[in-house]
Amino acid sequence: MEIIQTTSASDRELGTLTHLLSFAGFAIPFGSIVGPLVIWLMKKDESDFLDQTGRAVLNFQISYVIWSFAAFLLCFFLIGFPMLFVLPILNVIFTIIGAVKARDGIVWKYPMTIRFLG
After folding, report:
1. Cα 6 to chain center, whole Å?
2. What are the tens digits of pLDDT across the range 22-73?
């Protein structure tokens, strides 16, 4: 967790939106990645806060897709069903925590995340 001291109100709002756009994945396939990716690509060079927030959100959402696929495959061995139940709950909880932290100007690193984007 890192606090960026020079975070403007508009950056905090866009950071919060970056987290919340992850919920698009519940309605649109890969929407949880595409929504945050658009904001990150547009604003990463303008704001260190949005760059770090976008990376954190994208790393988690890509990890979540991989975990969900692994859980689906493990359902053939009957051990993936609990994971398919728990993963969406964790996704919602972690996304809300991240959005609240972003509103406060804090870059929150999601737990259990594979670092693809650094």
Report:
1. 22
2. 999 889 888 899 999 999 999 999 999 999 999 999 999 999 999 999 999 9
CA-to-CA distance for 33 and 13, rounded, in angstroms? 18
The length of the chain, given as a count of residues? 118
The domain of 11 spans: 2-103
Contact 51, 35 (CB under 8 A): no
| Segment holding 100, helix H or strand E | helix 81-103
Q: What are phi and psi of 107, to 5 degrees?
A: -85, 115
Contact between 38 and 96 under an 8 Å Cβ cutoff? The reply is no
Would you say residue 97 lies in a domain? yes
DSSP state of 80: S
Instruction: Output the pLDDT for position 97.
Output: 97
Residue 113 lies in a domain: no
